[in-house]
C-alpha cells in the first residue's frame, strides 16, 4: 500500500459526536437530559448532516457551526426540551471527547513517518477546539476545513483540498472515516479508503465501496503494514 498521507474525517471518526449530549446529561442540573440525551444526540447528528447536504444542493453554504446550531434547535424542539440548553450543548460540542484509541494510533502513524491530517466539514475554530481538547495537535500536520472550498462533503472539491495541501495524487492518500457516505465520496475521488464501522452497520449502496473496514481505529497502524 503506497500510502504517504493519512487523512481523517473528524466527527464520528476521531471525535465522539454523542459526547456533548452525554456530558450535559451528567452535569449538575442536567437531569432533564437524563432520559433524552441518546435521542437528542442521534437527531442532532442526523439533522446536522442533512443540512450540509441540502445546503450544498441549494448553493446556500453556511459554516458548520451555523449548521450545527440549527440542527440542535430542531433536535431540542423534537425532544420537547428547553431552548436554554442550547448554549451549553454548543459549548460542549467545541470540546468533544476523542475516542480512547485516537492519540496512540496517531502517534504510531507519525512514528512511521506518515503525514496525518484532518479533512472535515467543521469550521477552523471548531476543529481547533476539538483538537486542542483532545491534545492531538502535535500529532497532526494540518486540519483542513471545507470552508476553503465553501461546500460540504462529499463534493469532490473538498477531497481535492488534501491533495493540494500535500502536493500528492489521490493514490498517495489513505482516507479514514466512520461515515459510509464520506468513504464513498473519498473513494470516488480516488483515495484508498477505510470505513471505521463503529456501529456494525451494513455497507451503503453507493458507487464506491470501502477498500478496508475496521471496528475502530486501533488496527489502522497494522493495516498500513499490508503490502
Structural summary, described in words:
A six-stranded parallel sheet has the order 3-2-1-4-5-6, sandwiched between helices. By secondary structure, it is of the alpha/beta class. It has helices at 19-26, 37-58, 64-79, 86-93, 102-111, 124-134, 156-166, 180-189, 220-223; strands at 5-8, 115-120, 142-145, 173-177, 192-196, 212-214. It is built from nine helices and six strands.
Number of strands: 6
The residue-averaged pLDDT reads 95
The outline comes out as: globular
Give start-end ranges of low-pLDDT stretches: none
Give the strand order of the largest sheet, numbering strands 1, 2, ... along the chain.
Answer: 3-2-1-4-5-6
Helicity, in percent? 40-55%
Q: Give the percentage of residues in beta strands.
A: 5-15%
Question: How is the secondary structure organized here?
Answer:
Elements: E1 5-8, H1 19-26, H2 37-58, H3 64-79, H4 86-93, H5 102-111, E2 115-120, H6 124-134, E3 142-145, H7 156-166, E4 173-177, H8 180-189, E5 192-196, E6 212-214, H9 220-223
Parallel strand pairs: 1-2, 1-4, 2-3, 4-5, 5-6
Please summarize what this structure is.
The chain is of the alpha/beta class and 227 residues long. It has helices at 19-26, 37-58, 64-79, 86-93, 102-111, 124-134, 156-166, 180-189, 220-223, and strands at 5-8, 115-120, 142-145, 173-177, 192-196, 212-214.
